[in-house]
Amino acid sequence: MKNKLQALPHFFTLSNLFLGFWAILFVSRDNYVTAAVCIIFAGICDDLDGRIARLTKSFSKFGKELDSLADSISFGVAPAFLVYKSNFSQIGPWGTVFCFIFLLAGIFRLARFNVITKGFKKSTYRGLPIPIAAVTISSFVLFADFYFNTIEIQSVFLIFIPGLSLLMVSSIGYEPIPKLNFNRSLKSNIKPLAYFVCFVFIFFFPRQLFFPCVLAYVFNGIIMSLYALVRADNDTAETQVDEEKIVK
Fold first, then answer.
1. Residue 239 lies in a domain
2. Are 181 and 190 in contact (CB under 8 A)?
3. Taking 70 as the threshold, does the pLDDT of residue 152 lie above it?
4. What is the DSSP code string of 91-113?
5. What is the spatial distance between Cα 67 and Cα 49, in angstroms, rounded to a whole number?
6. 98 within a domain of the structure (yes/no)
7. How far apart are CA 141 and CA 50, in angstroms?
8. What pTM did the predictor assign?
9. What is the rounded CA–CA span in Å between residue 189 and residue 117?
């Protein structure tokens, strides 16, 4: 029974990989919206394999490496190919190099994550997780197809690709999605409840609301990091003033 539970996270990891491969096939057939949906579901599988590994305490080095290899396909190759084929395939080698930037940053992000992470408990992520970056692109594809009836919007991807790439290799902290804890007070559960409400709305209006919610998460990390930086500078300034008073 224990061996079966330990194999369960691997099932979701391989499902993630299969969906990433499937997304690449759909992109090659110019079916970009379905490819984006596959990447999003790959992200769900990626989240589930981590949660199940923590729940069953079945973390292993093999599982971590397998997860990263699957992520490199589903959240690196697939979204980069999606953006290239839909928007930049007509501009020659420069389009290839431009979209490769996203893949390169994602691979770097995964390698750094494997080096600095010990065990399976994470309080914060260093840099934007590659699944979130990939889901940002994929959810925008659904959003653009719904509102503009096209995903050929090069101006947006000219911002997204370098922007998301820089966030992945940055040191900006991103919090994992918090879980509800019924043993805690309502005040302690405000943030998990806010995420839950977002999930409910996304479930009913995925094409309209998924992208804005993911983008809000991306910007929240940037804003909180800037706030922490400003607060640290203020604390340093106050400490220096106190030290000067003591010297006087």
1. no
2. no
3. yes
4. GTHHHHHHHHHHHHHHHHHHHHH
5. 9
6. yes
7. 26
8. 0.88
9. 27
Query: What's the CATH number where 164 sits?
Result: 1.20.120.1760
- Three-state SS for 183? coil
Q: Which of 117-121, 172-176, 243-247 has the highest mean pLDDT?
A: 172-176
Give the three-state DSSP class for 126: strand
Contact criterion met (CB below 8 Å) for 173 and 225: yes
Whether 122 is in a domain gets the answer yes
CA–CA separation, 1 vs 114, rounded Å? 28
Q: Any idea of the CA torsion for 119, 124, 129, 132, to the nearest 10 degrees?
A: 120
Structure tokens at 172: 């900006």
Q: How many distinct structural domains can be found in the chain?
A: 1
Q: What is the DSSP letter of 174?
A: E
Range of the domain at 53: 2-177
Closest CA to 137 of 84, 197, 61: 84
Residue 86 pLDDT level (bands cut at 50, 70, 90): very high
Average pLDDT, the chain: 86
Q: Is 147 helix (H, G, I), strand (E, B) or coil?
A: helix
DSSP annotation of 216 reads: H
Q: What token pair was written down for 148?
A: 């503009």
One-letter amino acid of 224: M
User: In this structure, is residue 47 part of a structural domain?
Assistant: yes
Question: What is the band of 35 on the pLDDT scale with cuts at 50, 70, 90?
Answer: very high
User: Distance (Å, rounded) from C-alpha 137 to C-alpha 116?
Assistant: 26
Helix (H) or strand (E) holding 160: helix 154-169
Taking the C-alpha atoms of residue 142 and residue 126, their distance in angstroms, rounded to an integer, is: 28
CA pair distance 85, 101, nearest whole angstrom: 15
Matching residue, tokens 């809000």: 216
- Please count the residues of the chain: 248
